[in-house]
């Protein structure tokens, strides 16, 4: 087991100290953290914030050779969108973001995460994460995933794209 997963026992402490209460006023030192739940609008949120010229931290941050950068920095992709050179959607990227002091440096306007509990390690009492997300009805989300996986040949994650699903009904897929 990884060191981050073992430390989930201290999650209550980290939430109390490293996560901002959304009912309190926003502080300059807070960082917006979007919990990206698959097929619940996260990709649209990334595009929205990019169009507002905000700097994002997501899996895109380590593309185009930036996974080997020694220092935390903002870079611009070919579409003009700006990213911090860390991947806050994976455990190893969360460790890297913590060691490079992502929260203290204030380079990201919005940090996109898939593991909110692990992400609390990035933040501190004086540099809190302010979490938010978008939920989707679970049945609608599942139906969307079924049809998405039939066509998503651009999806880099192993096992997402499955053209064989087009030969099944959604009922058959749910039974499997």
UniProtKB/TrEMBL annotation:
InterPro entries associated with the record: Golvesin-related_Golgi, P-loop_NTPase
Gene3D superfamilies hit by this protein: P-loop containing nucleotide triphosphate hydrolases (3.40.50.300)
Chain coiled-coil ranges: none
PANTHER family xref list: COUNTIN RECEPTOR CNR3-RELATED, GOLVESIN-RELATED
Protein name (database record): Sulfotransferase
